[in-house]
C-alpha cells in the first residue's frame, strides 16, 4: 500500500485557512494523493504540536501562519536566507535526517503576484510599506531585490520600523517616517499595506495625499479584511488596487514546489478561490 504524505498548516485560529484547499487543488494537477490538514495550536502549545506532527505522526512538511511564524523560525534546525532575513518562517520541511528546515516564501510570492499576475513593473517605484510586523519583514527585501527606487517604512510603533530599516542596512534607499506624519511625507507610486488593521477591523485613517499618480496599492490581507484599504485606494485615485489573495496562492505554490519538486499552475487555483 502506498502511504499518503502528510502535510498541515499550523495557526491559531486556523479553521478559516484556505491552504488545505489550495494544496489539494495543486496536488490534483499532478494526480498526487495528499493529506493536508489544519492544526490549531495556542502559542504555548506550538512547539509540542510541531514535534508530534513531524516525529510521532510522520508529517512531511507544514505551512505556518499567525501567530507562529517567528516560533517556527526559532525551532528549526536549518534556515534559508529568506527566512533569516525575515526572522520568521511560513514553511517547515522535515529533512531526510529528521531535522527541520525553515523557509519564508512571503516576499517571493507577493512580488510574483504583482509582477506576473498583475503585470506591475516594480522597478524605480517609490514604495511606502505600511506596517513592520512579520509580514512586512517577510516582503521588504524582495521589493528591494525587485528594483524599487526607494522604500519608506511607516509603522504605528516607530521603533519596529527603525529596527527593520536597520536590519536592511541600505540607508540610501530605505528610510522610516512616523505614522503621525503620514499626511506630510509626499506621495508614492507603490503602497503596500502589511498591517493587520483590516483583519482586526480597525481603521488606518490614511490620508489620500499618499496616493500618487498611477499608484499601485496592495493589501496583503484579502476578502472582507481588505475592503477598507482597497476602498481608500480607489477613492484616492489609485491606478490599480489589489488584495493579497494572489500572494497567498503564489506563496503556497513555492511551498508545493519545494515539497513535491513540481511547479503547479497558480492561475486556475486563484480563479477558483476568487
Ligand atoms: P503582525 O501581528 O506581525 O504585525 C501587525 C502589523 O500591523 C504591525 O506592524 C502593527 O503595528 C500593525 N497594526 C495593527 N493594527 C494597526 C492599526 N490599527 N493601525 C496601524 N497599524 C496597525 O502581523 P503580520 O505582519 O504577520 O500580518 C499582517 C497582515 O498581513 C495580516 O493581515 C495578514 O493576514 C497579512 N498576510 C497575508 C499574507 C498573504 O499570503 N496574503 C501572508 C502574510 C500575512 P504595531 O507594530 O504598532 O503593533
CATH architecture of the largest domain: 3-Layer(aba) Sandwich
Q: Quickly give the structural class.
A: alpha/beta
Q: Give the uncertain stretches in residue-range form.
A: none
Domain count, please report it: 2
Number of E-state strands: 12
Report on this model:
The protein is built from ten helices and twelve strands. Strands 2-1-3-5-6-4 form a six-stranded mixed β-sheet, sandwiched between helices. A six-stranded parallel β-sheet has the order 9-8-7-10-11-12, with helices on both faces. The protein is globular and about 60 Å long. It binds NADPH dihydro-nicotinamide-adenine-dinucleotide phosphate. The site of NADPH dihydro-nicotinamide-adenine-dinucleotide phosphate (NDP) has 28 residues, from helix 6 and helix 9.
Write the layout of secondary structure elements.
Blueprint: E1 5-11, H1 19-30, E2 34-40, H2 46-56, E3 59-64, H3 69-75, E4 78-79, H4 81-86, E5 91-94, E6 100-103, H5 106-117, E7 126-130, H6 134-145, E8 150-155, H7 158-168, E9 174-178, E10 188-193, E11 211-219, H8 227-235, E12 240-242, H9 245-260, H10 267-273
Parallel strand pairs: 1-2, 1-3, 4-6, 7-8, 7-10, 8-9, 10-11, 11-12
Antiparallel strand pairs: 3-5, 5-6
Helix pairs in contact: 1-9, 5-6, 5-9
Bound molecules: NADPH dihydro-nicotinamide-adenine-dinucleotide phosphate.
Amino acid at each position: 500500500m502506498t502511504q499518503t504524505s502528510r502535510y498541515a498548516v499550523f495557526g491559531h485560529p486556523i479553521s478559516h485557512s484556505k491552504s488545505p484547499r489550495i494544496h489539494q487543488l495543486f496536488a490534483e494537477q499532478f494526480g498526487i494523493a495528499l493529506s493536508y490538514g489544519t492544526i490549531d495550536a495556542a502559542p504555548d502549545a506550538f512547539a509540542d504540536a510541531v514535534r508530534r506532527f513531524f516525529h510521532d505522526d510522520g508529517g512531511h512538511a507544514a505551512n505556518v501562519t499567525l501567530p507562529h511564524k517567528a516560533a517556527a523560525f526559532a525551532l528549526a534546525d536549518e534556515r534559508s536566507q529568506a527566512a533569516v532575513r525575515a526572522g520568521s518562517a511560513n514553511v517547515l520541511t522535515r529533512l531526510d535526517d529528521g531535522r527541520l528546515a525553515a523557509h519564508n516564501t512571503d516576499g517571493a510570492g507577493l512580488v510574483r503576484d504583482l509582477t506576473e499576475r498583475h503585470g506591475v513593473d516594480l522597478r524605480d517605484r517609490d514604495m511606502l510599506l505600511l506596517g513592520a510586523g512579520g509580514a512586512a519583514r517577510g516582503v521588504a527585501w524582495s521589493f528591494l531585490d525587485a528594483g524599487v527606487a526607494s522604500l519608506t517604512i511607516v509603522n504605528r510603533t516607530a521603533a519596529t520600523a527603525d529596527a527593520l530599516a536597520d536590519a536592511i542596512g541600505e540607508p540610501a534607499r530605505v528610510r522610516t517616517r512616523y505614522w503621525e506624519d503620514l499626511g506630510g511625507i509626499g506621495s508614492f507610486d507603490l503602497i503596500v499595506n502589511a498591517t493587520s488593521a483590516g483583519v482586526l477591523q480597525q481603521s488606518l485613517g490614511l490620508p489620500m495625499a499618499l496616493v500618487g499618480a498611477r499608484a499601485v496599492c496592495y493589501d496583503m490581507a484579502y476578502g472582507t479584511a481588505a475592503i477598507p484599504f482597497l476602498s481608500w485606494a480607489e477613492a484616492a485615485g489609485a491606478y490599480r488596487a489589489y488584495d493579497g489573495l494572489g500572494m497567498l496562492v503564489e506563496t503556497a505554490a513555492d511551498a508545493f514546489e519545494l515539497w513535491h519538486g513540481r511547479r503547479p499552475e497558480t492561475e486556475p487555483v486563484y480563479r477558483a478561490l476568487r
